[in-house]
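pasting input
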Amino acid sequence: MSDSAFITALQLIANFDPELLAIVSLSLRVSLSAVIIAAFIGLPLGAALALYRFPGRAIIIVVFNALMGLPPVVAGLSVYLLLSRAGPLGEFGLLFTPTAMIVAQVILILPILVSLTRQRIEELHGEYAEQLSSMSVSKARRIPTLLWDARLALITVILAGLGRASAEVGAVMIVGGNIDGVTRVMTTAIVLETSKGNLALALGLGLILMLLVALLNGMAYLIGEGTKRSLG
Amino acid sequence: MTSLSLAHPTCMPRLHFHDVAYQAAGQLLLGPLSLQLEGNHRTLIMGPNGAGKSLLMRLAHGLVKPSSGHLHWCGHVPRQAMVFQHPVLLRRSARANLEYALAVQGCPRNRRRQRAMEALEHFGLANVTRRPARVLSGGEQQRLALARAWLLEPEVLFLDEPTSALDPAAIRAVEDAINTFHHAGVRIVMSSHDLHQARRLADDVIFLHHGKLLEHSPADTFFQVPATVQAKAFIQGELMD
Amino acid sequence: MTKTWLPVLLGITLAASFITPALAEDPVSTEEKAPFITLASTTSTENSGLFDAILPQFKKARGIDVHVVAVGTGQAFEMARRGDADSLLVHDKTAEESFVAEGYATERDDVMYNDFVLIGPKDDPANINSAESVTDALARIADSEAPFASRGDDSGTNRAELRLWEAADIQAQGEWYRELGSGMGATLNTAAAMDAYTLSDRATWVSFDNRQNLDLLYAGDEALFNQYGSLLMSPEKYPHLKHDLAAQWHQWLLSDEGQQAIADFRVKGEQLFFPNAATNK
């Protein structure tokens, strides 16, 4: 079985199957968009959570930590109810579109980015706090400073988000609907092929997905190493 | 180097400690003590490890608040900078560290590069401009911290054991840098447990032991006729508990 | 502020554009220019490949794309009830008729049928191969307490299965009766793994590849007749839906052309769906 899966994967890649290409590029588009959007919200939010002290802070931290384990299906279902015609944002007609899938994945990975960023920034701030206080750097001004200085650690954080986004199927299945040529991504295609009993093809797609994720991680690693070498 | 001369304040601000004490977790770590820091000379805070030197300096700089008593600046609150025992440098190039300090102060963008380069040159760091700050040698890092402090144009400079982790050549370079500040009219407050360094640099000495202020006297007096047995023992290099 | 952010932004954008050169041309959206409807349908039709065969023909005839969201029949009704589908193609006639009666849909028509089949391990421990009726076959399974894998997901197939147990007057419960809560394909995979009997629609079974030790053991009883119907949603209840386009789809399915397309669809040489719009109309 695994042999034929491997061969199937190779054949798919070698043939440069246009349908596969569309599925792969949609997967990347959805997950990368979700990660970029979540990063723009989650990194500053995580840093702010690390720096500011206010009543209810502990509760927010615990909630975000807990949401790291949010089941994708639940995230998907919430977004479905939100975007459904009968839901509050129904009139935008976003259900069963890539946009809806991006929204669901943003919700799914935002807690990861917020929680891990908060943790990394708290560590770094422990080291920088006195120096920055000595220079009278305001809290708001510290956020970009710390984010930039923690950039190496944050690459790993972002990769953790990307990993979760590209691997999940529960959320995109519900809000995307796995529509052929429109919202079908790697993971939903794998589910479909499994339910058809095409286990070799399903596993082949799985291999390609892992290859892609490994490729993205490799690039991020190289970027990180480059930064480390050039900036210490 | 005309651009590097700092404006001499016409009137030096004075810092008053009034019965200042600091405790943490129910333990009294410093004080209560009263003292004044005035003039624009070089004050060395001395004492064995754990005497409260760093704490006194952080209280003076405003990094920590006293548990009781109060301290205030007579006149205006001066611009201050502090150099730590282990320099805290940003994970960027040497020059970017200086440019950051300038940016925080609101120095216009188009002037930052030039001022940073001047400071690097002045502190003998012109050849490491683009190097990541955190891979510089200990001495270079401490000089970079001093260059950064310089750009903040302080009236008072606090230094917390700035040379304790350095080799003799690096210590010399840092002491020269400290004197550069001194000659520019900057008030120096520095902690050290190195007697030789204190003899070289101190105008007056504050001697702490177990969180208590035992002496505050001109350097000559302190070294020649210390008033307390603890100071006498410390000066003679005895091991103290 | 901007100075520190700029490299971050640039880095991310660069990384993204390096990684996804294929995104620039975006093969999906070029085709998407055509008008489309969202069709809620069942996994059995999707998994068999029927839509892959007939949708291009419909597109060619009417220039309309059909976005198929394939879910269980229960979920398909819920989707439609919430106004998230322009049209429905499902197989639960009773529920479809009450859907119309309740005013959610205005029209329901037979489109095609296939049949349910009983699948089980080749050695057939309950001996249903020789059963006289589906009721008899189910009774034999229950008596022998051979494992039976039920969809348990409120799908059309699941509802049909429950009606069959009821008709056979058998309380389907006990350790041998396993409710999986899965789609048809997943249920077949599970049945294959645990040598269980299960009820499947013929289409999914024929196109299913991972059969292992499973075989078709019983079929042919009229009670196993599986009717598919197409529904038109109510314009009063759902003014936002694409009723015109959905009506075109509905009419095409019932037309000679659509019926022929269904009849022509074959998997491994076998016809899986039998058009019956004309006969019932």
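fyi Residues 98-134 of chain A form the longest helix (37 residues).
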